[in-house]
Amino acid sequence: MIPVLLIFIPLVSGLVGFLIKNEGNARGWALLSSLATLVISLWGLTVAKTSPLLHTNVAWLPDLGSRFAVGLDGLSQILVLLTAVCFPLIFVATWRDQYKKAWNFYALMLLSQAGLIGVFVATDALLFYFFWELALIPVYFLCSQWGGERRIAATFKFFVYTFLGSLLMLVGIIWLYWHTPDHSFSIESFYGLRTRVSGQDQTWVFWLLFVAFAIKMPIWPLHTWQPDAYEQSPTATTMVLSAIMVKMGLFGVIRWLVPVLPIGSWAWGDTVSTACIIGMIYASLVAIRQDDLKRLVAYSSIAHVGLMCLAIFATTTTGMQGVMIQMFNHGINILGMWIVIDLIERQFGTRKISQLGGLAQKAPGLAILLVVVALANVALPLTNAFVGEFLLFSGVFSSTATQYNVVFTVVAGLSIILSAVYTLNMIQRVFFGNTNALTERGVDIKANEKLVLAAIVVLIVVVGVYPKPMLELTKETAEMILTKMNYKL
Amino acid sequence: MMFSGIFTKSKTAIRNTAIVGLVFLLIANFEDMIGNHVPIDVHKMLFFDTFGLLGNSIAFASTLLLVLLSGRDMEKVGNNLAEYFALVFFVLCGVAIVTTFNTLLMLFLGIEIISIPLYILTGADKRNLKSNEASLKYFLMGAFSTGLMLLGIAFLYGASQNGTFFIDDLWTGGPTVAAKPLFMAGLLLVLVSMGFKVSAAPFHFWTPDVYDGAPTVFTSFMATIVKVSIFIGFVRLFEEGFGDAQDKWQVFVAIITAATLFIGNVTAVFQQSVKRMLAYSSIAQAGFMLLAVLALNSVSKQGMLLYAAAYSVATIGIFAVLIRMKDYTFEGFNGLARQQPVLAATVTIFLLSLAGIPLTGGFFAKYYMLSAVVSSGHFLWLVIFAVLCAAVSVYYYFRVIQAMYFKDGDGTTEVEPGAGFKGLLVVLAAVVIILGVCPQSLLSILSKFPYTW
């Protein structure tokens, strides 16, 4: 019941949104709808884990063995919560952004929310694929219609990349489907496959699925679409892309790949981990050299996601829980970064670090909030990312799935230091130093922006100081996934 | 029983009669499906099973849609409207034979009844040189492939044990028949000529010129109704006739499929004219349909019908809009969304369907094709190759969407389209979406009627 509501509220209100031909009303409508979704997702957290409210399973395509099956467990709860929290924040934070034909913009945003939530709650492989694509299409139109100058080429690259991945995943899903004993797409049948599919088959089917997820995350060397797409998208869409959409890839690996094909995951674990490590270092180094704020955050996102993917393949409870919690934290933190960038860009018309400076004198409120968000981004203690990254690192370090655990930990630790370099460097050059002609006219942020950034700061600190509810929420799912992963022939 | 429509047709020359005729055909076909046969002795030459009859329904319904959407545009081609309709109905007669044939002779007859009127329709625009050229080219190439087919049929006749044209008897005698070189030679000749008719590579060279040169209404007709019905005949022939020798010819079909997918998709990328792009895209789509011939199981037969329906509806819709455009190049579509939001939105849905995006009929069509091959367990490389090509196809389909929505321009139609035209397009788009959300709506028809294949 609850997951169905979570999908249909944004879906229906999105479709209705196309008909509201008034900018102000459309904006209000979108905010209202996203708040309703948030309320429902909070309600989902309060009901008991065994409650039938959390699951729905009705016939959809009986001939194909696919059902409309959706459900909420710890993992999907946390990501649904992230989606539900982010959307209202995005709408409020970009309240003053102007769009041509804004009603279409907000309608498409809501449709992409429906797709994202669908991905997180689907417990049927074909349904999962459906929502996976459904989340992509609105984003394609959002970026192409309202993006920057080079938007058409950039979003096109993004679309072809992800669509290619999706199709390979589709082949993988079909292949697995024909190997289930009852020809069904249900997640239970897929989880049963780990004993039925030979190790040899697992090693190549693994790649069909993993490429799709790796493109979405993105993992080096499949990341090249990302900086362009982030840079060229309208900021509200960039927030969706980076705060929530990259989590689709991580989620896909945790839910649909490693428990289904444990031998394949085990066989390629080191390869994937190495790619993650290379990507982390590479992205961090590139980030240091960026002058455009959007591109800087885009590359930092590649580094952070790489760490999470690394921890999945470490196959430890702490690592797995760390990934689940860090997915949430990363979404919140990067959202905060984008909001700050959006504020700067709207006020000064530029995102170039070299053209900014001394903002702290003109906009102290903004500076304080940014510093908190940025410190969370480099995982300082008492911030949420510290909890997440601590778990990730201890998970990778104590891993028995790989013999290179120490090397991986050390090199990954290096990327954290690099992340401190580029983040602090950015703060210094944008907020401190002397003001120039451009930043002289700067004013502090407005109430709605303060509200959103304050909400983010509160989330950062609360999760950082008191992570226990999150840990409890994810424990059971993490252990369930790990028992399936640790299966040996 | 099914052909009465043709004779009444040729007497009257108005569109409405054609529509009535088509509706009549559809009803007759439907009556036949639910079991109200009018017994006519065809000496087992034709075999009306659910597969063929559903194929007929799709072909007739698509023609009806075409006439409803673009009937007026047919009048602009030339003065001989009555003849055009008569020829279209002749083709439909051939379609009915090809979808339900039971002997190689009937297959040959059906293909010829389809082809000859098409040669004329292609050249219908007498004052246009390109149209004349296309017609001549099509005729020469078509005649050649007909010759090959006839030779192949003769070989098969000679190779079969008792000398028979009946497709289900070809195999009597088992492996000894298949071992004869004559049998394989005949099979390959038939495969080549069928490949020619469905414009599979490397026998596709006539397609772009003919599709480009022919009046757009008839291009639409050729690319959809004719193509899918020949495909249904293709599947029928290879299943009934050569199904048991599958391991012998599968590799040839696989190579043809791969070549078709590759050439169709890659060449379409470089086109400047939307009409020519659609010609290549139809080659690419033929590649996907060939996967059904390759796999030949119950999944692929269902998928074939779904593909036929989804592909025809989407393509007819796009062509219907294309006919009314001033300019057939991609630039001609620039900014169409601002001038004609309804047309742009529906064309977008049709294009998404052709590209195989979920929530449209095209997705499940492609899904069935892939699933059919994967379930057979062989030729996985071909499946992966096919999805790579499908990703390429996104490029040229989305170019039209980009032109319509994201580029500035004053792309518009020649005359303001009527409300009926727009309404019908919206209905078609709704059909595409319904097929995409619950393909069961079409497929359940399959299970309702008694299986007779």
Question: What are the SSEs and their pairings?
Answer:
The complex is a heterodimer of chains A (489) and B (453).
Chain A: H1 2-17, H2 23-46, E1 55-61, E2 66-71, H3 74-93, H4 102-121, H5 125-146, H6 151-179, H7 187-192, H8 199-216, H9 225-232, H10 235-257, H11 262-288, H12 293-312, H13 317-348, H14 359-362, H15 364-377, H16 384-397, H17 405-431, H18 447-465, H19 468-485
Antiparallel strand pairs in A: 1-2
Helix pairs in contact in A: 1-2, 1-4, 2-3, 2-4, 3-4, 3-10, 3-13, 3-18, 3-19, 4-5, 4-10, 5-6, 5-10, 6-8, 6-9, 8-10, 8-11, 9-10, 9-12, 10-12, 10-13, 11-12, 11-17, 12-13, 12-16, 12-17, 13-15, 13-16, 13-18, 13-19, 15-17, 15-18, 16-17, 16-18
Chain B: H1 4-11, H2 15-33, H3 50-77, H4 81-100, H5 104-122, H6 129-159, H7 175-179, H8 181-197, H9 206-213, H10 216-241, H11 246-269, H12 274-295, H13 298-323, H14 336-339, H15 341-355, H16 361-376, H17 380-406, H18 419-437, H19 440-448
Describe this entry's structure for a reader.
The complex is a heterodimer of chains A (489) and B (453). By secondary structure, chain A is mainly alpha-helical. Chain A has one domain (2-485). Helices cover 74% and strands 3% of the residues of chain A. Chain A has 19 helices and 2 strands. In chain A, strands 1-2 form a two-stranded antiparallel ribbon. In chain A, a hairpin with a 4-residue loop joins strand 1 (55-61) and strand 2 (66-71). In chain A, helix 3 (74-93) packs antiparallel against helix 10 and helix 10 runs antiparallel to helix 13. The longest helix of chain A has 32 residues, at 317-348. Chain A is globular. Chain B is mostly helical. Chain B has one domain (4-448). Helix content of chain B is 76%, strand content 0%. Chain B is built from 19 helices and no strands. Chain B has helices at residues 4-11, 15-33, 50-77, 81-100, 104-122, 129-159, 175-179, 181-197, 206-213, 216-241, 246-269, 274-295, 298-323, 336-339, 341-355, 361-376, 380-406, 419-437, 440-448. Chain B starts with a helix and ends in a 5-residue tail after the last helix. Classes of the chains: A mainly alpha (489), B mainly alpha (453). Chain A binds chain B through residues 60-63, 129-130, 133-134, 137, 141, 144-145, 151-152, 156, 159-160, 163-164, 167-168, 170-171, 174-175, 177-178, 208, and chain B through 352, 357-359, 367, 370-371, 374-375, 377, 380, 383-384, 387-388, 390-391, 394-395, 398, 402, 405-407, 438-440, 443-444, 447.
